[in-house]
Specification:
TIM Barrel; 16% strand
Length: 367
């Protein structure tokens, strides 16, 4: 598999329907600058009553059926383009290994190129078994490092990485290194030191790719004013662009983010009623047009009309031809009293699709 560099984008996407549809709607030209990380999420808790053992069996049975479909879904929504497969959110080592095995087995039959992600902190058995799967299916392996790893003394981290390499039997040239910082805030004073630490990794020039990922989108929209023009800083992008453009780095990491969602997965949030809001990526910020939770659904349409047609948003809106998401916004804004209002899922799809297209263009246009 080919390496990629600074002018390539690595978004982290939960493998859910809104994200899948956002990917599917990208053009071939947009896809060529993107290699996503697909995060598998645990199945929803069962509503059945009974012993915990019975409930766990129901969850595992449901999960097995769900994951058997993932490879075909990826083929349908992403094609044969390269992607990473991350099972780190699943409940147990056994489930992670079994799930990756099922998906990679099916992926081989439909021509999908998936690289499994392992965590430097994982147990030896999980590292070994996931690396065997990576070798079997010929797509290498991705090694995920966290913020705490990069805060170690360079010699200590080098020893941990070399110990890992001795267990998984992959050469550095077959490994994609992903430094996942998760939450990045405006007060994140560690970012420049993390970039510096990335340059002290062993085998720096040999890794197949090197990426820094983080997310700055807020946990919720409580700090955004309803029916107002709210801007949230894209600190993840701003930090990456600032600290990797010094000209002094031996190897510039690629950029990755969590799109328009908070980096920390909240299982209970699946059951929350979101506000009727639009999240829209602009050059260095996110524009949030916040609605209310209990108000009418045509709040979406009113926001869409403002964004796509009003002078106050002229500098923000990219135009209906920019992406599927932008065309959706324009079309839905034609009639604020129309019967089709969309729902939280369709608006999330539009926002993610626009974000992917926007960031892919940003990295492709870097000088």
């Amino acid at each position: 598999m080919n390496t990629f560099g600074r002018k390539h984008y690595i978004p982290v996407l939960k493998w859910k329907r809104a994200e899948r549809r956002a990917l599917r709607a990208l053009t071939s030209d947009q896809k060529k600058d993107i290699t996503p990380v697909f995060q598998l999420i645990p199945p929803r808790p069962t509503k059945k009553r009974g012993a915990i053992e019975t409930q766990l069996k129901d969850i595992q049975k449901s999960a097995s059926k769900q994951y058997q479909k993932v490879a075909q879904e990826i083929s349908d929504d992403w094609g044969s383009n390269r992607a990473f497969l991350d099972s780190g959110l699943l409940y147990s080592s056994h489930q992670r290994i079994d799930t990756i095995s099922q998906i990679l087995s099916h992926a081989s039959t439909v021509g999908v190129a998936l690289t499994p992600v392992i965590n430097l902190a994982s147990e030896s058995d999980e590292l070994s078994q996931l690396s065997v799967l990576g070798k079997k299916h010929g797509n290498g392996i991705a090694l995920r490092l966290t913020r705490s790893h990069l805060e170690l003394a360079p010699a200590t981290l080098s020893q941990l990485i070399d110990n890992c390499l001795s267990q998984i039997h992959f050469a550095a040239a077959e490994i994609d290194v992903i430094i996942d910082l998760q939450v990045i805030t405006a007060e994140d004073v560690d970012y420049p030191s993390i970039v510096g630490a990335s340059q002290l990794l062993p085998h720096l020039e040999k890794w197949r790719s090197l990426t820094i990922i983080g997310g700055a989108f807020p946990k919720d929209l409580t700090n955004c004013v309803v029916d107002n023009k709210n801007y949230c800083p894209r600190t993840d992008w701003d930090n990456w662009a600032r600290y990797t453009n010094s000209g002094s780095l031996k190897r510039i990491p690629s950029f990755g983010d969590y799109t328009i969602q908070h980096p920390i997965f909240n299982e209970q949030a699946q059951f929350f009623l979101p506000s009727k809001s639009i999240r829209y990526t602009v050059k260095n910020t996110w524009l949030v047009m916040r609605g209310t939770k209990k108000g009418p659904a045509n709040q979406y349409l009113a926001h869409a009309q403002l964004l796509s047609r009003k002078e106050i948003y002229k500098e923000d809106y990219y135009g209906r031809d920019f992406s599927f998401g932008d065309d959706y916004i324009y079309t839905m804004g034609e009639d604020i009293d129309g019967p089709k209002t969309g729902n939280p899922e369709t608006w999330l799809t539009a926002g993610i699709n626009h974000h992917l297209a926007c960031v892919a263009k940003q990295v492709a246009d870097l000088t």
